[in-house]
Queue: 3 jobs
Job 1
Amino acid sequence: MNKSGLFIAGTWQEGGEALEVRNKFSDALLAQVGMATKEDVARAVGDAAAFAPVLADTPLHRRSGWLRKTSELLLTHKEDLARTIAGEAGKALKYSLLEVDRAASTFDLAADEARRIHGETVPLDAVASGEGYFGFWVRRPLGVVAAITPFNFPLNLVAHKIAPALAAGNPIVLKPAEQTPLTAIKLFEILLEAGVPDRAIQLVQGLGEVAGEALVSDPRVAKISFTGSRAVGDRITRAAGIKKVTLELGNASPVIIAPDADLDYVAKRCAVGAFYNSGQVCVSVQRIYADRKVSEEFNARFVDAAEALKVGDPLKPDTDVGPMIEPSACARVGAWVDEARNAGARVLTGGKREGNVYYPTVLAGVKPEMKVMAQEVFGPVAGVQTCDSFAEALAAANATDYGLQAAVFTQDIDRVLRAVKSLDFGGVIVNDFPGFRADHMPYGGNKQSGLGREGLRFAIEDMTNIQMVVIKQR
């Protein structure tokens, strides 16, 4: 594996200051990679901009072929990629393997969508001034796409930037999370093996305040696609200037449990949704609103489901919950749980830390103003609040600045329709946890949870411009 860290202008490069990559469970040193300077980023963007016309003229079937081959190669290297993710991100191996499968599917879907990029005719003579004119529009590539991705899905969220960019005919400059650079390096090696032109993809490892700032503020960048925190998303919009921007930001995902829900099923699904990847998922189960008629029984079953999860080394095949990404994140989660406990919340299970592992934690007696309910925990913590009615639960779920995805468990179609109409979220998941995502569906948030939508077709549309063509008939 190439540990250079930077891939600029078709060559692997060492970069500047070394970035240490450590196993998040054992703290063993995995690798050192060079970080990009602002000058490195400028060179990467410049080379991508120079190559943009070539890529834009590349036939759709060739772009599709690169993406299909990448999908195949990801599955060929599945075990190695999954172990890399588990080591550098701390994600349990069983979920790391699933991430590779999803990334392969993402590239495969993009290969299909690349062949479907098209325009439409416009009946200009629908108005008097359009008589004698023929019109149609086509989609044209934007130019350089800048992608900044988080640590929690170091392969599939990178795939959701690179695959649609290449399908649309745009070169891309990627800055992955500094905690998880090795997966991105492996992906770039696979992309090159799949036949992607070496100047169509540029990799700039590094810190957000150096590489990230230089990337988003470069005027040669036409489009920014960012997944991360709301605070950083706000900084990007201020620094970007006039560019297209897609932001996938945070959430404090609500789950509503109606009295007719299958509590055993709900408890098990909420345990997975709250604690896989140590809760470090923007659509992780966090705020649970249970009807008073079933809240006590749900709490008992939820605790049982949480305690049944195996916690430990993510590289062991039976581990469900591994470490958090860094000690400071683990300490912050602990502080928020302690704050809630001191304010009257009850810790039904968990609430403890061993090394970089924070145990799955269920809180009852929570209040809306507690940080564990009001802000994004991004850790293995879920709070249960009792509600006296479905309407009260809907109102409580909506009482947030976030709006990515929400979940409702009920067998009543009337409740389902009321929830869909009432909930101000980009996605409403019925009878499963809010983290459900099929990689071709439109995915994105309302309010402070972001701008735009991902999902291959939708990302490709946002990575192209509509060009109108008008022909005067003579």
Job 2
Amino acid sequence: MRIMVTGGAGFIGSSVVRVAVARGHAVINLDALTYAACLENVESVANDPLYIFEQADVCTRADLDNVLKLNT
């Protein structure tokens, strides 16, 4: 299963990302990297082939369209 996690560099989102990857799910981490984000939170899965990070704003339709096009 492929899962998209928004805010995946934040405290809760990064936990979801790490657990999902550990369980064998492909994960797209979509995060704008604002004040609450920290890529160190997902460092343990950063090189995993199941993990993709996309810096984008969920509130921007063009960003979402681009991420979805690139990852389908």
Job 3
Amino acid sequence: MTSKTRLGGKQVYIVDGSRTPFLKAAGVPGPFRASDLAVNCSRPLMARQPFVETAVDQVVVGCVSSGPDEANIARVIALRLGCGDQVPAWTVQRNCASGMQAVVCAAKDIAAGRSQLILAGGTESMSHHPLVLKEQMVTWLGRWYQAKSFGAKARHITQLKLAWLQPVIALLRGLTDPVVGLSMGQTAEELAWHFKVSREEMDAYALRSHQRLAAGMDAGHLHEVEPLYDSKGHVYSEDGGLRRESSLQKLAKLRPVFDKPVGSVTAGNSAQVTDGAAMLLLASHDAVRQYKLQPLGRITDFQWAALDPSQMGLGPVHAMAPILQRHALNSDDIDYWEVNEAFAAQILACCKAWTDTDYCRKNLSLEHAFQAIPADKLNVDGGGISMGHPVGASGARIILHLLHTLKRNQGKRGIASLCVGGGQGGAVLLETE
């Protein structure tokens, strides 16, 4: 099912953007919280604009889990940036598409004439996702605090069970669908089985992602990345998940993670748990003219779609198809594609479903499938498998990088899309001037 929405009204431009390096989580909380990441990539972005921070009308940020110290994290970011007390800010959450949702929300307000300049994007510090107490332990603590006398507390402490002290890892729980009971990796295994995606295909795609990211870094194609500096003076200038030494032989040695006896989805052909942020500056035509801005491109259309949560990885197919239909386009009309790499199995399944007439007829009500997406036009500088997937930020990152890719290669039209945990998909159609 799709929600039939289309960007109408005034033109919406993306004039600039920045992102942090994506830092691979190392099992302990990283050096930056989610607001730190967004602030640190937004400061240089705003510093190079011909207007001050207080000129923006809104700040909209996508984030899946900001933590108790960053409630309404968009407002925290806006105030830390110096946008001022009078600039409203709000946070959105659509799982993996939270950053894209923030950009779409901003675009809709500009298209409707309600705003002229909006700072929007996404941030996530997955290494800081909390540990949570079990419900039995929370109940025990509540009754402990209710006990008033020493005797009552003494009797109550005898009821404590050591097993209750084991924390719940919120990140792992969040990556499991509560309705169908499958982890995101298990849904990728489902797609691999349904579309006959082999382990060899997955590993080959994963290797290509690393090779393309390495080539993109070496060629200077990731100039939207702003370095991070921690409190100890360490500098982080590149995506931490890149494995230049990766090979098919090394990938083949990794064991399945989500279906251990017979599965094919491994840590090597899956997106990495990562901290990162990406922020974009959106503007109306009037703002572009007033400040003499040079837009990277404009948002032409967008689409949200929903499907069976156990098939969530096919969300991009369901979101991209209506856009191409509305504009009477086929795959060869799109110059470049950025489709988030949650899993190699997932993105390869999307490519197969895209050209599968039976699938398109049964699930998208189309008479014909689409032309194949050319491999040399898809994720040309790598993606989530090699650079990581900070869930709140990836949707903004792929929009920003797609615009730079179009500009660099003199492309006219591109689509950014991703799958969304819970069985959804999002897509944005971008055009250059």
